[in-house]
Amino acid sequence: MAENTFFTKLNEKLASVNSVLLVLPPNADFDAVAAGLALFLSLKAAGKQAEIASPQGPTVNFSRLVGVDQIKTELEGKNLIVSLDYQKEAIAKVSYQIDENHPQGKKFNLIIQPEEGSRPLSSKNVHFDFGGAQFDLVLTFGVEDLAALGDLHSKNQALFNQKDKIFHFYREKQANFSQRTVELIGQLKLPFDSDMATNLALGIEKASQNFNPDFSSVLTFEAFAHCLRAGARRDVSPTATSQPAVPVQTQDQPSPVNQETPPIEQVESKEAGPVQTPPDWLGPKIYKSNTRL
Predict the structure, then answer these.
(1) What is the pTM of this model?
(2) How far is the C-alpha of 197 from the C-alpha of 186, rounded, in Å?
């Protein structure tokens, strides 16, 4: 019942929004990344403006997943953030001024005044960045603490503070992220093609430890079968090639190209040649026994 309620509320929200942000947890495992990418691809196929982000960039372990290059570690926002090395006594007052008469045109000046008697801030320690990303909906995958997202959270606090926009998606012991995402995509009636199915099939196999009974159920097999019917590819490999395999030659097995093969007539003549018999073959035979009675 709780599952259906979650899907229903999320479906209602998706129907009224255009932009969606999917957020992976710190040190996301294969299952979470596979599920996040599959839903990301599905939302884009549905015409949504979707993005997927993670505090860390993807590693080579995820290279088999379709769309892994789309994972961002920073979000583009409209707010310019000026960062300084903070020292309490170095900042007494912050104000701004519009310089109408600057030789290079009108300028906006941000003025930071230090405490009296304190050293002024160094311009070398000033950093510029952007934040304040705006999305209609945020869906996290196993994020227990938003603060653990690091800069993704700190630079976009206004977004993450809107609790009515945030949905948290979690895995269960016998229902991993990939399995639940198969169910989620089906319940929300989102597009489901071979690329999405491939990601989820790989995620299900990995998370269930090849369908270990402790980490899977009949629903796990049903979700996996659904992926196969949608065209999931199980032989995806980052080093896969369409070139034909070349047999490996060893010293004990020289290449047949370098050996002269006799004509078939010679082989047949040797096999059909007369059989030589011993001279005494037709003579009487005498057998002796060493057994004493």
Answers:
(1) 0.66
(2) 12
